[in-house]
Design goal:
With about 60 residues, the protein is mainly α. It has one helix spanning about 15-50.
Length: about 60
């Protein structure tokens, strides 16, 4: 996925930069965890497909 344009607007009391940084980090970490889990599931699924498939003779 490629993000070409991202615009975020919010209004908060206090230091806008600190609030944005905190919220961004929180959500990017959650996204990264979901992405890593998805990749691990895909890798596991691929490994299961190959299990017992020595030289393509078993399926």
């Amino acid at each position: 996925m490629t993000i070409h344009h991202l615009e975020v607007r919010f209004q908060v009391d206090g230091d806008d930069g600190a609030v944005f940084t905190r919220l961004f980090n929180q959500h990017i970490q959650a996204w990264a965890k979901l992405y890593e889990d998805q990749c691990a599931r895909a890798k596991h699924t691929e490994a299961e497909r190959r299990f017992g498939d020595a030289e393509g003779r078993y399926s």
